[in-house]
Amino acid sequence: MKKAEVFAQLTVDIRALERRQGVTYPLYEEWIAAGLNNARLASVATYFECVPGFMRLLHEQGDDLPRFYAAVRKLAEQPRAERHARLCGLETTARLTE
Fold first, then answer.
1. What's the rounded Cα separation, in Å, for the pair 50 and 92?
2. Is 83 within 8 Å of 76 (Cβ atoms)?
3. If you write DSSP's letter for every residue of the chain in order, what string do you get?
């Protein structure tokens, strides 16, 4: 199967899943309609990989959103590799499962 066919089938599968669950995800509709590709799927994988790190950072800030946003802005000043290691690296996942 060619890559374009795989992405087309994935789109069909996502919509079938929504129908089976009786739920639609309007925020994803535009994203899916624009066409799936490796970059789009990688962004989702990165997002889900980094959520635990952001949750931990929020908790470290006492679950206080203004403090969390300030911490994120400060983190944004660091090089990408450092930000990624802090929020999305394997050590983040390991710490959360301890």
1. 9
2. yes
3. --HHHHHHHHHHHHHHHHHHHT---HHHHHHHHT---HHHHHHHHHHHHHHHHHHHHHHHTTT-HHHHHHHHHHHHTS-HHHHHHHHHSHHHHHHHH-
pTM value surpassing 0.90: no
Which is nearest to 39 in space by CA: 86, 7, 78? 7
Say which residues have a Cβ less than 8 Å from residue 28's Cβ, sequence separation at least 6.
14
Which is it for the CA torsion 47, 49, 52, 57, positive or negative? Answer: negative
Are the C-beta atoms of 87 and 48 separated by less than 8 Å? Answer: no
Q: Is the pLDDT of residue 92 over 70?
A: no
